Amino acid sequence: MLMQPALGLLNHVLSEEDWARDRLAGFAGQTARLELARAAWVVRISDTGLLDLVEAGSAATVCVRLPEDAPVRALTDRASLFTSATIAGSADLAETLGFVFRNIRWDVEHDLSRLLGDIVARRVLQVARSIAGWPMGSARGLALAAAEFFTQEEATVACRPDVEDFCAAVDVLRDDTSRLEKRLARAELLR
């Protein structure tokens, strides 16, 4: 259901990137199966380097199984998404798909500028980025405030300098105890 719009967006991005289509066109006619949780999709590479959806039961040249947390990784750490995928089948096709999807970028501003004009597109993206950054900034501020409250006001959690001082005191005590044990051992030998 969601695969068709996602595939349409992916083909739109591919249509803007000649290098990516050229790489994929070398594997025209071959299929790739993408598995995520219980869902599976199979795509065939066309002669032009675009992707066509085929039946999920179709045989695949390569099978790529994504980890359960793939949607989160796709938004936060794309590199770890590709390194955690399990691949079976054609290594050449898998490497090409991995290279294309690691390096392809959607130029949203360019697409928006076609609809709204250059200036409006830039402003819309600036506003969208600031809105998208707001929750992260708020979460960071909340975390810092909570950390300060629990280390300074309530003192339920030790702050870093206190922990470092404690560790240094333990090291001194350990060294002193070791020296005392050696002195006692020498005193025992002299008796």
From TrEMBL:
| Sequence intervals crossing the membrane | none
An example Gene Ontology biological process: ubiquinone biosynthetic process
Instruction: Provide the primary localization.
Output: cytoplasm
- What is its subcellular localisation? Cytoplasm
Q: Which GO terms describe its cellular component?
A: cytoplasm
The UniProt keywords, alphabetically, are:
Cytoplasm, Ubiquinone biosynthesis
Q: In which pathway does it act?
A: Cofactor biosynthesis; ubiquinone biosynthesis
Functional description taken from the UniProt entry: Required for ubiquinone (coenzyme Q) biosynthesis. Binds hydrophobic ubiquinone biosynthetic intermediates via its SCP2 domain and is essential for the stability of the Ubi complex. May constitute a docking platform where Ubi enzymes assemble and access their SCP2-bound polyprenyl substrates.
In the record, the note on similarity to other proteins reads: Belongs to the UbiJ family.
Q: Which PANTHER family match?
A: UBIQUINONE BIOSYNTHESIS ACCESSORY FACTOR UBIJ (PTHR38693:SF1), UBIQUINONE BIOSYNTHESIS PROTEIN UBIJ (PTHR38693)
Q: What is this protein called?
A: Ubiquinone biosynthesis accessory factor UbiJ
- In the record, what lineage is assigned to the organism producing the protein? Bacteria, Pseudomonadati, Pseudomonadota, Betaproteobacteria, Candidatus Accumulibacter
